[in-house]
From TrEMBL:
It comes from Monodelphis domestica (Gray short-tailed opossum). Belongs to the RING-box family. Its main location: cytoplasm. It is found in: Cytoplasm; Nucleus. Residues 50-87 form the RING-type domain. This is cullin-RING-type E3 NEDD8 transferase. It comes from the Eukaryota. Its EC number is 2.3.2.32.
Length: 97
């Protein structure tokens, strides 16, 4: 992840020309000391390999976007109600395509 320090924000102009409410001296209202970029991602595939039995053809997706066979996941949930990959509570997002 990118750390930006000393008020340098990527993509932002170096100086800000304010409207009628800006100070005449051009002083900044605040200074950005540190900025941490954060990103999220998820799989966007229709067919992947089931992490439990290692066979293709997905049937059930969780809210975490991990996909498994419905029969594999129903057996897994009986022992542990968490996603086998990310350990989030298992909640079905969708079944089928």
């Amino acid at each position: 992840m990118a750390d930006v320090e000393d008020g340098e924000e990527p993509g932002a102009p170096a100086s800000h020309s304010g409207g009628s409410g800006s100070k005449a001296s051009g002083d900044k209202m605040f200074s950005l000391k540190k900025w941490n970029a954060v990103a999220m991602w998820s799989w966007d595939v229709e067919c992947d390999t089931c992490a439990i039995c290692r066979v293709q053809v997905m049937v059930v997706w969780g809210e975490c976007n991990h996909s498994f066979h419905n029969c594999c996941m129903s057996l897994w949930v009986k022992q542990n109600n968490r996603c086998p990959l990310c350990q989030q509570d298992w909640v079905v997002q969708r079944i089928g395509k």
